[in-house]
Write a structure and sequence with these properties.
about 350 residues, mainly beta, Jelly Rolls, Endonuclease I-creI, 2 domains, nine-stranded mixed β-sheet, seven-stranded mixed β-sheet, 4 helices, globular
C-alpha cells in the first residue's frame, strides 16, 4: 500500500496521529541481530536491511546491553538474556552498546527535500535487565564524578516498573533515544552520539507511545534507523545515561512529498506541538527551538510573527531535553488545547 502524501508541509503537524496510512498497510518485523543493526554511527552509504512503502508498519525489537558489560559488573551469565549474546556476537570490547540501531530502513520514493513522519504506535520494555553509568569527563558534573561507575538495574517487565533500589521504583516511560535518518551524503559517516538535522540521538522522553516525529529526508530512501532503548530518563539525562534497556514496539512510517522542507526535527503528542533546537550552546539550542515554533505558528495558525512571539511567551514551555551529548537539546512545547480551530 503506497500512501505518499502530497499535502503541503505547513500542515504536517495538523495531521492527526491516527489519520490515514491505515487499512491494508503491510506489517514488517525487524528484530535486532548481527545482520540487521549498525552501531554508533549514521552513514548515507549504508545498505538498507529492510525496504518499506509509505504507510507500512514496522514491529521492532531493539537490543541494548552487551552481555560482557553485564558480566564485568558481576551479573551471572544465566541471568543475562541469551538473545543479547546473539545480537552482540563478534562485538569487540565490553562497552554497553547502547547505540545498537535497527536499520537502516529504506522508504520507497523518499528523496531529499521530503519529510518522513514516524508514528510511534507502541513501545514497551521487553527484557528485565538494564544498565546505567557515568564516565570521566562526561555528564553534567564531571568535576564531581571524575571516575567511572556502572550500575545494573533490574526491571519488572510485567508491571513495567524500574526497580532502582529497595524502596525506589520508577514507572517505566519507555522510548527510543535514537530515531534518525541518514545524514546528507556530504557529511560522510558521523557518530551517533550528537543529534543533528537528521534526528538521531534526540534523547527526548516525550517521544514515547502515541507521539509522532517528523524528520527531513536528506538522501534517497531516507534510511531510517531506530534504537537506544530507554526504560526511563529525566529531562537533561544529567549523568549521560538513561535506564538503558531493550524495547519492543511498532512504528508507522508515512512519506510526505514536496512542500516546504523541514530544517530541524519536529514532533507532536496528543497534547502538544513540539519543535526542537540542537546546538553545542544551550542558549542557541533554545533560540532554534523557539524560532522553529514561531515558524510553525505562522505557517499553520495564521499568526503574524510578532503575535507568534508573544503567544510563545504566554503559552510555550522550553524544556532542556539533554545536556550531555556534545550537541545539547532543547524542545519547545505548545499546548494544542489553546487552539479552538
Amino acid at each position: 500500500m503506497r500512501l505518499t502524501h502530497l499535502t503541503p508541509l505547513v500542515a504536517l503537524l495538523l495531521v492527526p496521529a491516527g489519520a490515514g496510512a491505515q487499512g491494508s498497510a503491510t506489517i514488517h518485523d525487524l528484530k535486532a541481530s548481527p545482520a540487521t543493526v549498525h552501531r554508533n554511527f549514521f552513514d548515507a552509504s549504508l545498505k538498507p536491511v529492510l525496504t518499506i512503502d509509505s504507510g507500512d508498519i514496522v514491529r521492532l525489537e531493539t537490543a541494548t546491553g552487551n552481555p560482557r558489560w553485564f558480566e564485568k559488573l558481576g551479573v551471572p551469565k544465566d541471568r543475562i538474556p541469551a538473545e543479547l549474546y546473539a545480537v552482540y556476537e563478534g562485538v569487540e570490547g565490553d562497552g554497553r552498546g547502547d547505540h545498537t540501531l535497527n536499520g537502516p530502513m529504506a522508504v520507497r520514493g523518499a528523496a531529499p527535500g521530503d519529510t518522513l513522519e514516524i508514528r510511534i504506535r507502541s513501545v514497551e520494555v521487553r527484557l528485565p535487565i538494564a544498565g546505567q553509568s557515568f564516565t570521566p569527563n562526561r555528564g553534567l558534573l564531571p568535576d564531581e564524578f571524575p571516575y567511572e561507575k556502572g550500575r545494573v538495574t533490574w526491571i519488572d517487565v510485567g508491571r513495567q516498573v524500574v526497580l532502582f533500589a529497595p524502596g525506589i521504583e520508577i514507572p517505566a516511560r519507555p522510548f527510543w533515544g535514537v530515531i534518525g535518518v541518514a545524514p546528507p551524503a556530504g557529511m560522510g559517516r558521523v557518530p551517533s552520539g550528537p543529534p543533528n538535522v537528521f534526528g538521531g540521538n534526540l534523547d527526548n522522553p516525550d517521544l514515547g507511545a502515541g507521539s509522532t516525529l517528523y524528520l527531513p529526508v536528506h538522501v534517497a530512501g531516507a534510511l531510517l534507523s531506530v534504537g537506544d532503548g530507554h526504560a526511563a530518563q529525566g529531562y537533561g539525562e544529567v549523568s549521560l545515561s538513561a535506564v538503558e534497556t531493550s524495547l519492543k514496539g511498532e512504528i508507522q512510517v508515512v512519506l510526505h512529498k514536496g512542500g516546504r522542507p523541514l530544517r530541524w526535527p519536529r514532533a507532536e503528542t496528543a497534547t502538544h506541538y513540539i519543535t526542537m533546537g540542537l546546538d553545542p550552546d544551550l542558549d542557541q539550542a533554545a533560540r532554534i527551538a523557539t524560532r522553529e515554533m514561531l515558524d510553525f505558528l505562522v505557517e499553520t495558525k495564521g499568526l503574524s510573527r510578532e503575535d507568534a512571539y508573544l503567544l510563545a511567551s504566554a503559552a510555550m514551555n522550553l524544556v532542556v531535553t539533554q545536556v550531555v551529548d556534545g550537541t545539547k537539546g532543547v524542545h519547545a512545547l505548545m499546548p494544542k488545547a489553546i487552539f479552538r480551530k
